[in-house]
């Protein structure tokens, strides 16, 4: 029998070593999990991920995370074929829609014609307009924004426009309205940007500003059919937790939950596990990336991994025999690497079910993230258009 419920948890940015094409992205030497382990000097405690095979899938085990002998699940890695290393690219590719044409990037800031239109629409002046760290920019310009009501607009090494504003100065709904308008300017044909991100923050001064959970990603609508659509059209329930709904613009999704944090996301996972449904639950946990990867904070990153691992124990205990869990990531964001951008890395692939017939197997290095979606479709007997299923290796038959 096929699995009735498939759960995929994406540990946003938890890469496991430089990809074969890392040189194209100037990311040779990046290793998110490896460098977090080194920062903890053997004290990174991830017992649940370890027994699933997190160190088994690596050439060099993560410091402090033992190789499981045998692992209770199957393990491997996935390589990305999309042209970029953003969350949208990674998630779309997992669902059978890799981004094969480069999106627009703006290392020198957005064109003045775009800025002029945003200023005219919003009635507010735009400041900064260049690549910047999201936390550093509100430290450097947040107090000015509170005084003037300007829009702090910036980008990064990814195809994104981010607009930050203090919630007491520009209400969240107004910021969303501005971002929705900016989204319309970046859908092509001249400029095609992956995401426009609203970045509200709070706090009295630059030393106490914090970004809030009211972040919202206004993503480019999928340019074709995804595996979410295929599952939905075949009559299976599709549930999105975290920014999944934003990344896919709601397409093919039946039920969606917004996350306040990783732990809030795991609360939603626990809630969905109590539902009686047949289909797919797709979860993104973004704190690894947003709070620790971009801020190059390996200690915070490791603590977030340990917190997740603890909650993962509950998930493993609650799984039913006809449940399948897969854990992966969408890209790297090595907190021990230079810069503040995502890193081009392979991502972990862990698969587990209480009824899995052949646990402890290596799934190898998959040639595309799309193998994940193809496997899910194979489980539900839905045809895939891209990717090679590994369902037979992880099945309960």
Structural class: alpha/beta
| Total count of helical runs of at least 4 residues | 13
Straight-line N-to-C gap: 6 Å
CATH class identity of the largest domain: Alpha Beta
Rg, Cα atoms, Å: 20 Å
Described by the principal axes of the CA atoms, the overall outline is globular
Main sheet characteristics: 8 strands, mixed
Share of residues in helices: 25-40%
* Extended strand count: 14
What is the topology?
Layout lengths: L4 E7 L20 H9 L6 H6 L21 E5 L8 H8 L17 H11 L3 E6 L2 H15 L2 E5 L4 E7 L5 H14 L9 E8 L7 E2 L4 E4 L7 H7 L3 E5 L2 H4 L7 E3 L4 H12 L5 E7 L1 H7 L4 H21 L4 E6 L18 E6 L9 E5 L3 H10 L11 H4 L3
Parallel strand pairs: 1-11, 1-12, 2-14, 3-4, 5-6, 9-10, 9-11
Antiparallel strand pairs: 2-13, 4-5, 6-7, 6-8, 12-13
Helix pairs in contact: 1-11, 4-6, 9-11, 10-11
Describe, in plain words, how this protein is organized in 3D.
InterPro entries: Alkaline_phosphatase_core_sf (IPR017850), DeoB (IPR010045), Metalloenzyme (IPR006124), Phosphopentomutase_DeoB_cap_sf (IPR024052). It comes from Limosilactobacillus frumenti DSM 13145. This is Phosphopentomutase. With 397 residues, the chain is of the alpha/beta class. The protein has two domains: 5-101 and 221-394, Alkaline Phosphatase, subunit A (3-Layer(aba) Sandwich); 112-219, Alpha-Beta Plaits, CATH 3.30.70.1250. Helix content is 32%, strand content 19%. The protein has helices at residues 32-40, 47-52, 87-94, 112-122, 134-148, 172-185, 227-233, 244-247, 262-273, 287-293, 298-318, 370-379, 391-394; strands spanning 5-11, 74-78, 126-131, 151-155, 160-166, 195-202, 210-211, 216-219, 237-241, 255-257, 279-285, 323-328, 347-352, 362-366. The strands form two sheets. The chain has an eight-stranded mixed beta sheet. Strands 3, 4, 5, 6, 7 and 8 form a six-stranded mixed beta sheet that branches. The N and C termini lie close together (6 Å). The model has no long low-confidence stretch (mean pLDDT 97).
